[in-house]
Amino acid sequence: MLIREEFEKREQSFMSPFGCLSSKSKGRLKQDPPCDVRTAFQIDRDRIVYSNAFRRLKHKTQVFLSPLGDHYRTRLTHTLEVSEIARTIARAMHLNEDLTEAIALGHDLGHTPFGHGGETILKKIYSKSFCHNEQSLRVVDLLENDGKGLNLTFEV
Hints:
With about 160 residues, this protein is an all-alpha fold. It is built from seven helices and no strands.
């Protein structure tokens, strides 16, 4: 039995009926061959973590302030905290932790610099309404990987 299949079997043994099994994923826009080691949602998590957009989160402030001292927060630290809380909740509710983690790690990839203030300015100068949530989808679907996107599962 492949390692991935062992993970998928383990999911079936503890997952709530409300959980999303990796083996039942709706797939990807461009089909990839299954990995021997990682589930589809683990692959999604890794694609997000190794993306340029994720790494850029370290340069974006959570709240715009003067970074005097060493205790200011970035979008990266915020995202890691969101991911930890999301995994804990998913574990307690017997949901798919890998799927939850992938969603949590990708939730702010489209955020502007300078926090919500930057988004407010973009809304004023952009002819359409700018929303960082929608921009996150554009980043993972269209912009990352030189315009090829990350090809994440539909669930993420």
